[in-house]
């Protein structure tokens, strides 16, 4: 099958929003090439070895998506260009905005990204390890085997890494967790390996659901984690001790309406994927729902929030 690789050069501010636009158009795979993040991992010692050269221009982020070559492709490309052009109206800098389109075979893009994915310690004890690579673990390491496939999320982006570090401090044995927009399932797996006894993982994308299920199986936590297709928390039963939402600001704001009824009194929500400039909007929505902001973390232009249901 032939696929169109749509590539756009943009900014750190806009890259996750553009990824979401691609997903809304039906993209079955999105790749974010962030040279700033790669440079930081090169010098951090998180990678045992890498032959990726140091990037000199770290301000341009490339977002790539893959759409089937069919009769709908032209309409989707026009819709994509229109959505990107409208970002300026929301005070979001799209950057260069250069868009290119190339046709490739499915087998070419489904595996080519693997050369950029190496074992990384993203928290104090959690290590994200590609399923095809070896890693010499330290005694306290918790290893997450991951094959993101065509789903979004290798666990190394700021937004995911911040969530993982917070999970390391929050999760205790016996907790129930909801992971909304699970993607590759990395956060759900982290919660399970940290001691949660029941994890419900949900994603709107059926492909992400399949890949998350595969990763859950690889990590031997299928007895703890259930993965299903769904729209945010609609259809999710019960209340959780911890709710994770690593998505985007606008979707988090929508999700917050359900949090008082889905998060136990005293429970914690970790919200990430928030562009730092949108922190005020999300904070206002949190307070409107009678929730409490316990902590805000900012890295690389992104923010994560630790929110508590105080039962007000």
Q: What's the layout of helices and strands?
A:
Blueprint: E1 2-10, H1 15-24, E2 30-33, H2 35-44, E3 61-68, H3 73-85, E4 99-105, H4 106-112, E5 120-121, E6 126-130, E7 142-146, H5 158-170, E8 176-180, H6 186-193, E9 198-203, H7 206-218, E10 225-229, E11 240-246, H8 249-255, H9 259-262, E12 263-275, H10 279-288, E13 292-299, E14 302-308
Parallel strand pairs: 6-7, 8-9, 8-11, 9-10, 11-12
Antiparallel strand pairs: 1-3, 1-4, 2-3, 5-6, 12-14, 13-14
Helix pairs in contact: 8-10
Account of the protein in words:
There is one protein chain. This protein is α/β, with parallel strands linked by helices and 312 residues long. It folds into two domains: 2-112, Alpha-Beta Plaits (2-Layer Sandwich), CATH 3.30.70; 150-308, Rossmann fold. The chain is built from ten helices and 14 strands. It has helices at residues 15-24, 35-44, 73-85, 106-112, 158-170, 186-193, 206-218, 249-255, 259-262, 279-288; strands spanning 2-10, 30-33, 61-68, 99-105, 120-121, 126-130, 142-146, 176-180, 198-203, 225-229, 240-246, 263-275, 292-299, 302-308. The strands form three sheets. It has a seven-stranded mixed beta sheet with strand order 10-9-8-11-12-14-13, sandwiched between helices. Helix 8 (249-255) packs parallel to helix 10.
Output the CATH topology of the largest domain: Rossmann fold
Q: How large a portion of the residues is in β-strands, by DSSP E? A: 25-35%
Strand order of the largest sheet: 10-9-8-11-12-14-13
What would you call the structural class? alpha/beta
Rg, nearest Å: 19 Å
Number of domains: 2
Q: Report low-confidence residues grouped into runs of 5 or more.
A: none
Helix-strand sequence? EHEHEHEHEEEHEHEHEEHHEHEE
| Residues in helix, % | 25-40%
Give me the CATH superfamily of the largest domain.
Answer: Vaccinia Virus protein VP39
Q: Please, what is the average pLDDT?
A: 84
Annotation, overall tally of beta strands: 14
- Number of helical segments? 10
- The CATH architecture of the largest domain can be named as 3-Layer(aba) Sandwich
Determine the N-to-C terminus distance.
Answer: 54 Å
Q: Would you state the CATH class of the largest domain?
A: Alpha Beta
Q: Which of globular, elongated, flat, extended, rod-shaped describes the shape?
A: globular
The biggest sheet amounts to: 7 strands, mixed
């Amino acid at each position: 099958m032939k696929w169109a690789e749509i590539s756009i050069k943009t900014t750190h501010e806009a890259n996750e929003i553009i990824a979401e636009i691609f997903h809304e158009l039906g993209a079955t795979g999105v790749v974010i090439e962030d040279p700033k993040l790669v440079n930081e991992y090169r010098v951090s010692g998180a990678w045992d070895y890498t032959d990726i050269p140091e990037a000199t221009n770290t301000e341009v982020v490339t977002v790539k998506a893959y759409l089937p070559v069919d009769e709908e492709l032209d309409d989707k490309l026009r819709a994509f260009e229109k959505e990107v052009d409208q970002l300026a109206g929301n005070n979001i800098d799209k950057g260069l905005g250069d868009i290119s389109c190339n046709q490739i075979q499915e087998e070419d893009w489904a595996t080519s990204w693997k050369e950029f994915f190496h074992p990384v310690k993203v928290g104090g004890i959690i290590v994200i390890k590609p399923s095809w690579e070896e890693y010499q673990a330290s005694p306290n390491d918790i290893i997450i085997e991951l094959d993101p496939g065509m789903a979004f999320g290798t666990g190394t982006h700021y937004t995911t890494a911040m969530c993982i570090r917070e999970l390391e401090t929050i999760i205790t044995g016996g907790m129930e967790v909801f992971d909304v927009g699970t993607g590759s399932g990395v956060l759900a797996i982290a919660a399970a390996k940290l001691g949660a006894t029941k994890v419900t993982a949900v994603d709107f994308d059926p492909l992400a659901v399949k890949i998350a299920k595969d990763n859950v199986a690889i990590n031997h936590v299928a007895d703890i984690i259930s993965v299903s297709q769904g729209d945010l928390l609609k259809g999710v039963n019960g209340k959780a001790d911890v709710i994770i939402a690593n998505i985007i600001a606008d979707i988090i704001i929508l999700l917050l309406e359900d949090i008082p009824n889905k998060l136990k009194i005293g429970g914690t929500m970790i919200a990430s994927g928030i562009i730092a400039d949108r922190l005020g909007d999300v904070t206002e929505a949190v307070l409107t729902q009678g929730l409490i902001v316990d902590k805000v973390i900012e890295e690389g232009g992104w923010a994560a929030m630790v929110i508590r249901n105080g039962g007000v």
